[in-house]
Every structure is written in structure tokens, then in C-alpha cells.
Amino acid sequence: MNKKKLSFLQIWNMSFGFLGIQFGMALTGGFMSRIFQTLGAEIEDIPILWVAAPLTGLIVQPIIGYMSDRTWSPKWGRRRPYFLIGAILSSLALIIMPHSPTLWVAAGFLWVLDASINISMEPFRALVADKLPSSQRSYGFVIQTLIIGVGTWVASSLPWMVSQFGVSDSAASGIVPMSVKVAFTIGAVVFLLSILYTVFTTKEYPPEDMQAFEEEKAQKNRFVADILENIGNMPTIMKKLGVVQFFSWFAFFTMWSMANPALTEHVFKTPAPVEKEYVMSNPVQKAAFDVENTAFQKSSNEVGSYMGIYGLSSMAFALILVLYTRKRRINRKYIHMGSLILGGLGFILMYFIPSPEYLAISFILIGFAWGSILSMPYAMLSSAVNPTKMGVFMGIFNMFIVIPQIIAALGGINFVSNLLGEETINAMIVAGLSLIIAGLSNFLITEKNAITYQENN
């Protein structure tokens, strides 16, 4: 199919729903560990409580990709029905999540929320490749990254923002503060509205060969066989990018799960108080616990706000690339390599900073890596994928995102960081080293069309 070039506004409209998806991801990434700690989780148990998220992605994304490839409605298109279903479920989960009464309920809702986010997220990756000619794909994924950066920045700062309007950061033992509850509710509304905007402003191309599409769709009981066949036939570039993705996502999963306990303890000097160490029936000890808990909740707001900076810098990174890629080619390989190495240095710097305000430098550097992770691998991959199987291949590619997260959750973070010592901040050093390895792994990529797309004029 000869796809026409789209305007900036058209690409913006088709990508805008990612604002809501990123609200959901940033709220969970920035504050889920805080919720777990508030409900009584020990620091060493936090990674395993996150295991639901990548496990869900491993299962859901290939299924949704396969199903969306085989879906077509003249009114709703191919990918948009999945955006909408995922948005409704995600919004409900976001509202309920911070009201969880116990740790296991919160972990269960993280499972539900991540499954719902995956239903919306995977088809968005495929939509960019569906709608844009190869010459615009770097541009399209970068615009998507720009929107993701906005979402990360705003959502990560939401608890701090609402607390500035007088919403309380204090709460009784085992209760999530109202500032977090309000922030998650706002996130739910933004999630649904942004998805609706994309659904109603974007049209999709029908299958190029409708007869072949209907014949393939009519085949029964081919799901597992098709998935396995496509895994066996994945392009070489996907395997090479898989190595880069493995270390990239190990690093960011480490940040999402461990940054709050690591930074509140090492940088802010306000670790979460452990309730069992206090005699809560003693008024003096209860008062001491409440003071320390409020300090932890306030510094957690600050950590979230600083984490929002990586969304802001990824937005700036994306904006520069948007302006550049509109008219010029880029070397995706070296941009990705340099960005990941800078992000790795940002993580390592966290160990050495003398006061919290220097966290801004770390997260600016991390934002360069995040902006590149969200755009360059997908732009490189889309050059080598059969357009009729874009959804399922994007879903399979997600394996290289979730498998490292599963390994990290099942003990990888604790094992590697404990090699450096018992301090929680060592997890951030592990994240930094992992990102640097990811950056250097780009030397594996040699496919010229993946590295730099040459448009035929």
C-alpha cells in the first residue's frame, strides 16, 4: 500500500491517547512501591510484588497484537477498539488502586491495571507503523515519545501538585494518603479522555487485500501455531534489538520498583518507618511513627516530582528529534547508544549526590535514555517487519521488554545489588550499569535500513 505522508496534527491526533497510557504507567511506576511500603511491604519484597506487571505483558501483548491484526470494522477500524476497552478497564483500576485495604489487594490490582494498560498500549505501537510510510516512522515514534514525556512529567508530579492545594499527605498507619488517591483519580480521567480523543480523530487504513484478510481471519485454532511460527521467523534485527531491550528494561524496572525506597532512604534520609518496630498503643511511640511516616510520604512526593523530570527531558529530547527528523535522516543506532549511556551515568550519579536538588541532573540524563527507548528501537524494528503482521510482531517484541522485568522481579535486582552491598541505593547503580551495557550492545546492529532509512526521492 502506498501510504501518504501525514501532517504533524494527524500524527499528534493518532498518538495523543498515549498521554493517558503514560499517566497510568507513570503513576504506577512512581508511586506503586510507595503504596506497597505504606501497606507494610519490606524493601526486599518490593520487586516480587511488581512481578504481575511484566508477567501480564508477556501474556497479553502478543494476544492483543494477534487479535488486532485480525480485526477490522469499517466504523472502529483495527486498533481503536482495543484502545477503548483498555482505557475503560485501566481507568477503573486506577481509581480503585490506592484504596486497597491490604498489600495483596494492591498487588492484585496492579495485575489488573497492567493487563488493561497493555490492551491499550500494544496497538498504539502498531498504529504508527500502520499509518505512516517508512520515511516518517522515526518522526511518528518521536512524536509519540513527546506525548509520553508530557504524561510522565505531569503524572509523576500529581501527588505533589494536589498537596500544594491543601490535600493531605498524612494518613493513619496502613492507609494511602489522600494526595495519592486524588492523583490516581485524576490519572483515570485523563487516561479515558485522551484515548477517546484518538479514537474519534483518527481513521485507519482497511486491509490491503480484503479477501486474503477474511480468509486468514476465518482460519480456526491457529493462534498458538501462528505465534510460535512468527517467533521462529522473527527478523535478525529483532533478535539484536532484543539484547539492547533486555538491559534497557532491566534498568527501568529497577528504577520503577526501587527508586522510591532507595532515594527516600539515601538522599532524603526519611526511610519508611516499620510499624512493628513501634508500640502503637503507646501515645509517644505512635506520635513518633506518625511524624516519620508523614516525612516519608512527603519525601515520596518529592521523589515522584523529581522522577517527572525524566519525562520532561525525554520530551525535550523528542522535540529536538521531531524538528530534526521532519527534513533529515538520523543515525538511529548511535543516537540510541549515546542516550542509553547518558542515562546509565544518571543512575550512577544518584549514589554520589550531596543533596536532593542534584537529583534533577540524574533524571535529566535518564530522560534522554527514556526518550530514545520509546522511539529508536521501534523505528529500527518497523523497517524489517511485514506490515500485515505488525501487531503480532510488536507484541512478540514486547517479550524482550517483559522478560528482563520478570527476571528482575524474581530476584535479579536483589541478587545483583547485594553484590555491591546492603544499601538500597545500590539498586540504582545496578540500573546504571545495565543501561550502559544496553548502550554498548547497539554495536550488534549492522542493518543499514534499520540504522538510517533512506527515502527514495
From TrEMBL:
Record's bilayer topology term = Multi-pass membrane protein
Check the record and name the SUPFAM superfamilies matching this protein. MFS general substrate transporter (SSF103473)
Against Gene3D superfamilies, the record matches this protein to: MFS general substrate transporter like domains (1.20.1250.20)
User: TM spans, by residue?
Assistant: 12-36, 48-68, 80-97, 103-121, 141-162, 182-200, 241-259, 303-322, 334-353, 359-380, 392-413, 425-445
Q: Where in the cell is it found?
A: Membrane
Q: Does the keyword Metal-binding apply?
A: no
Q: Does the keyword S-adenosyl-L-methionine apply?
A: no
UniProt main location, coarse = membrane
Which keywords appear in this protein's UniProt record, sorted alphabetically?
Membrane, Transmembrane, Transmembrane helix, Transport
Tell me which domain of life the UniProt entry assigns to the organism this sequence originates from.
Answer: Bacteria
Major facilitator superfamily (MFS) profile domain location, by residue?
A: 237-457
Kindly provide the name given to this protein in its UniProt entry. MFS transporter
Q: Which species is this UniProt entry from?
A: Polaribacter marinaquae
